Each structure stands twice: as structure tokens, then as C-alpha cells.
Amino acid sequence: MSDIVLSVVVPVYNEQDNLTPLINEITAALRGVVPFEIVYVDDASKDRTAEVLRAEKARVPELRVVQHSRQSGQSTAIRNGVKAARGQWIGMLDGDGQNDPADLAKLWQEHLAAPADVKLFAGWRTTRRDVFSKRISSKVANAVRSRLLRDATPDTGCGLKVFEREVFLDLPYFDHMHRYLPALVQRAGWQVRSVPVAHRPRTAGVSKYGMLDRLWVGISDLRGVAWLIKRSKRTTAKEL
């Protein structure tokens, strides 16, 4: 049986220059805190991401690498990383370096002190370090989502999260589902806690999403998630 407790899943696409610094920060944040592994999922990058990850794998014993045969998007990358993970709990952060890995340890401590029914600890970027258009689009999206889904979560777009692996794999899977994890976890009958975390400017590479991408996809997804919540039924069950 694996002695891994926390699996850190990092989905990446064309992030060759952010890999080594972020891996170093993750290991520095978690070594001595919790038995962990790092699972990078390369979403069929076209730059040197795969080459750099192979070199890092030889250097960092905690690192594992999963590679997609074709580009499939962030939600699929996250799900495949979680499926490959050996820990009971998953830590998740974006591969662009804007999430501070030190906050993984912060979320983990929140988990250790929380009631057992809190299954998702979501990062809350109280101070955004993005361009103006991205901050505005995110603010509008969060307001609309919160009003429609009533998920009581101020920032679902933050990639930094800690959640139970089994709970995640029991959620309905669809493209872009990672943006609605709080609502989906609550739909499954569990509690969610938002935790203030740091946010940093991107120093290498480029963002993979634009404002219009988020807007049109988000409208369709919101309707779908609202339907799922409306149609859900929960009850306890026991074996006789």
C-alpha cells in the first residue's frame, strides 16, 4: 500500500519555462509537512514541456508525469491526474506559476483542523495579479455563477484546491467541470471551505484562455450545472 497521503496534480500545456521553478517550490513547501507526490499532466504540449518534465523526473523523486496523446483540455487533464494519483487527498494548482505552492501547506492545515464533512478547500484570490480584462471577466463570471448556483464560494476560478480523491471521482464528469467543483461537491452532500490565498503575476508563457472563451463556454456550463443540481437526489443508505 502506498504511503502517499497528498497527491499534487498540476495540469500543463506549453509551460516549459514554468516547470522547474514551480516543482522546486512545491517540494520546498511540502517536504517534511506531509508524505506527497507530484503528478504533472502534460496536455500534449507543443513546446519542450515533455522534455523538461523527463529531466525533472530524474531529478525529483516525488515527481510523476502523465502525458496525453492529444490535447483534451484542463478538466480532462485534472481528472486523469487524479485517477493516476495514489494519495487519498489531492492538492491542485495551475502550472503557470500564479498560484503560490506555499498555500498548499496552508490548505492542508485547514483540512487537518476541519470537520470530516468538509471535502473541498478552495483557494480564494483576494488580490488578483492579472490584466484588467481578465479580472473584470472573472468578477462578472463569479457574480453570475454565485447568483445562479448559490454555491457560497467567492472564487471558483482559483486553481489552488485541496479535496478528497474519492469525492472528486464520484462527481459527474464533463469538460470545464473544474470551474464548478464547489457547487458539484455541495450537490454531492459535502461541505466546502474557501481559504484566502496569494496570487502572483505570470512571469513566463502566455494565458491559454481569453474573455470570450470563458463567457460563451460558461453560459452553457452554468445551465448544465444548474440542471444537475435541480435534478439531484441524496439519501443515506446502509446494508442490512
Automatic annotation (TrEMBL):
Coiled coil: none
GO cellular component: plasma membrane
Pfam families from the UniProt entry: Glycos_transf_2
Single GO MF descriptor: undecaprenyl-phosphate 4-deoxy-4-formamido-L-arabinose transferase activity
Keywords of the record: Cell membrane, Glycosyltransferase, Lipopolysaccharide biosynthesis, Membrane, Transferase, Transmembrane, Transmembrane helix
Domain Glycosyltransferase 2-like: 7-168
One GO BP: lipopolysaccharide biosynthetic process
KW Membrane (keyword) present: yes
Protein name per Swiss-Prot or TrEMBL: Dolichol-phosphate mannosyltransferase
Organism: Ahniella affigens
Lineage: Bacteria, Pseudomonadati, Pseudomonadota, Gammaproteobacteria, Lysobacterales
